Amino acid sequence: MSSTTAPAFTAVAARRTLTGSEPSVPKPSPTIWSKEVREWVSRGFAAATDDDGITHDELTAKIKQIITEYMSNESMYSVDWSILPIPQYFIQQERQQAILGPAYQPNAMYYPTPPPPLSTFREQATVPASKKRKSSELGVDQEPPWRKSNSLLEDRVTYANPTFEDRAEKRSKKRRDETNKATSKYQNDLELRKQRFGLHSPSPSQPPWRSRSETPAPDASSGPVIGTNEDLEKKYFRLTSAPKPEAVRPQRVLENSLKFLKKKWREGASYPYICDQFKSMRQDLTVQHLKNEFTVSVYELHARIALEKGDLGEYNQCQTQLRALYAQGLQGHPTEFLAYRILYFIHTANKTDLNDVLAELTPAEKDDVSVKHALDVRSAIALGNYHKLFRLFIDPPNMSGYIMDRFIDRERVSALAKMGRGYKRALSLRFLAEELAFESVQQCHDWFIAVGAQDLLESKEDGSVWLAADTPTYKLFESARQTTFSKVDIKGQI
Amino acid sequence: MEPILNNFKAAFSQGNGYAMANCLMPAAPKDDAGLLYGFYRSTNHFSVQSDIRSFLTYDSRGLFVSKQESGLWVDVFVAYWKAIGDILHAEEASNQTKGPGADWNKVYESWKDMLNALLRGYTNSTFPAWSIPCLYVAAKYLRIFAIKADEQTEKTKGAVTFSQGLSDDLVSSVEKNEKLEDATRQINRIYGICSNDRAPMEESRKWGLYYFTNLMFKCHFKLNSINLSKTILKSLTASAGDMPPLHAFPKSHQVAFLYYTGVISFLEENYEKAEENLTKAKQLCHKDARKNQELIMTYLIPCHLLTTHTLPTMALLGPYPRLQQLFLPLAVCIKKGDLAGFDAALAASEREFVKRRIFLSMERGREIALRNLFRKVFLAGGYEPPKEGETGTNRVRRTRIPLNEFTAAMRLSLKLRSEDELSRDEVECMLANLIYKDNLRGYIARDAGMIVLSKKGAFPGTGV
């Protein structure tokens, strides 16, 4: 192992580019290091474990080297030692660099920059709280800003367009003026590819199962990443190492991505694509520690789309995050999502969690239209009032209908078991279609066929269809009820 | 340190485990408030080890079986001394308005060290099994300190922790009750050490099993993870064969165990089982343990309402003003068939009910209220005109009742105004529910707009 990692010690490219001076190695002076420096060193030793593949000697050498470097360029006191990553981090960086070759530049983690004030990015959540049943309809009534810049947005995704090159040049020039570390698009792509390569083939000296433990534990004090990526689209990859700024998009870009994705979704893009894009956006937000109203709007939209597509797993992830974000006092649509949460617990028949939600409700929340609807649904089911339940199903607020879809058939079965008991004579399908909130008598008819009740249906001379009531209906639906309620698909993952 | 260690030595030589446990209390007894202070001040960090060692082993010939045993007890008391120091500091700090405040996390950690020192004596069976009450005290207070530590953490850090690592989403798995979860794991460890004891029953640690099971239940309830309790329950029933029967255990263990298993069954909506366990718990419960009786009845009353449709009487609720306040308004409305009153009473005590996890069960009392209302309609309907040969004694009640009468009764009971709507379909729906659950016998004749009730026992269990 040491044979492959040894060369890594000579190349300290990142330092050279930043200082522009050759690190001369002065004789370590008998200076007493400041408290911060000593703490940093002890942090390094404290974090040393047997399984990260770094020997004690390597660690000591690295610490010496770093301190010497800072001494030599007189930045000893300008560096904030308390937030400097532990020495292991630099060793890992170098190893990775050694694997990837000289073109790869470790990111500028040497000087973690504080995040820009969020207020500069803050944008009012654009999604109005109107009653909509389609997530794509949400936000339709505002003037879409991307209409005007339509071509621009398209260009930025497909690199074939030559105008893109110009624009990217301009932008990168601008950025270079700002930060002096912009990279050309080509380099950008190259690095992305290399990064990907690096992710998939761990260093030859390490068996694959070691690669995870070799990842430096991201230090909380190392601060957030500041993204520099300009792409509107980005494929989602699960992170296995600290994120690279050039692969992360700042909020400014993400805001455009969100608009772009909204448009794509409205134009009928496939759900797997949209979901993937949203996941990468969420990742970018996370690694940059962005917790603001824009974050909320990303999660809200993803949750709505997931609901519409019946992807309850993804919806749940968003819901969890949203709860925490709302708890931070961020603006959004907390009551809308509270209503979904209640309905979701009805779906999973999770009495414990349902009780906990009820325990947390405030009077103001109870008065909210969507929460009230969800609570009414709950009580209607608890009291067996299927008549009221199906009235509530016909006119749900927001996207509540999509969760109700999940358990409505179950409730239909349960209602029919009761009807089978309560009525002696046949019931007309017209009545049943209305009572059980089917869209039409035909749909109702099809549903009965689908659940295997065809033998109970009877056509009359006037063309109307009747469902035999009494014992056979009761028996059929009672046994169906017992099987459906005994196995509720809790996760609802697709 | 003399008083505590002398007591300990006396209790040890008498073989009195509970008296030994008293010497490991983290709180001073009422009649000697300065006991722990004196104990803490009698030595210091530098010499605590040697002081305790010399005191414990001095003039104690024959007390300890082996040098190893005395050494382990010395470790226990050194850890205890350190924990007492942290506890006294924390209590002092929480009494002061200024300053950094009490550090309960530190208390938790040092108490856990004490527990681990104690546990070492049991893992290799050095400590006699009859001294297990020491573990009771250690585990009981571990839970208490864990809760305090978590409360403190939540106050200082806030309930939400955001992830910093490589996760895709902002919020990492919420570690709201970190210490309590850890405490539960520790207690589970103790449970394991007790249940693995192969010694003959007379000197087995298995006598502690129910105590630790109850303690874990307590933690799970606080953590809102009652599912974990079911796992414990399973492992306990699996090993029941090698254990003395429940009724051989101390009564306090029995009552707590029956109470918790009763509540678990209650939450699973297995009301028969719940009623069985809770009734037993109530019978065994000490007559002066008012609070425990109240807790048991909080679940027993809803159970009884749902299984047998009977309401608590004044005589039963009399000695418990809190239960009266909780259940009496609802009971009155159910009896009268007053739906509007029921809804109002339910809404009024919703918060209390939800807190005790009985809301979802109490809500179902509305069905009984509705049944009582419809029963009134049936009774008000009077009798069929007597047929020939019928005498006054076996007259038949009117069994064909127009749906309108039920609708009118519901409107009255719900205190609906003339413009409020109550559709015929909804009334039919409620009737179908009653028939389905066999609270009413008969059927709905939809075309005729009639309800045809059974001639005999139209309302089972109510005498008509």
UniProtKB/TrEMBL annotation, chain A:
Residue ranges of domain PCI in the record: 311-490
Region ranges (Disordered): 110-228
PROSITE patterns per the UniProt record, alphabetical: PCI
Highest taxon, organism lineage: Eukaryota
InterPro entries: PCI_dom, SAC3/GANP/THP3, SAC3/GANP/THP3_conserved
Signal peptide: none
Basic and acidic residues bias: start-end ranges: 164-180
Gene3D superfamilies: 1.25.40.990
Gene Ontology cellular-component annotations: nucleus
Protein name: SAC3/GANP family protein
Source species: Eremomyces bilateralis CBS 781.70
From TrEMBL, chain B:
Any coiled-coil regions, as ranges: 264-291
Stretches assigned to the PCI domain: 255-458
Protein keywords: Coiled coil
Listed InterPro entries: Csn12-like (IPR045114), PCI_dom (IPR000717), WH-like_DNA-bd_sf (IPR036388)
Molecular function, one GO term: RNA binding
Pfam families, sorted: PCI
Family: Belongs to the CSN12 family.
Name of the protein in question: Protein CSN12 homolog
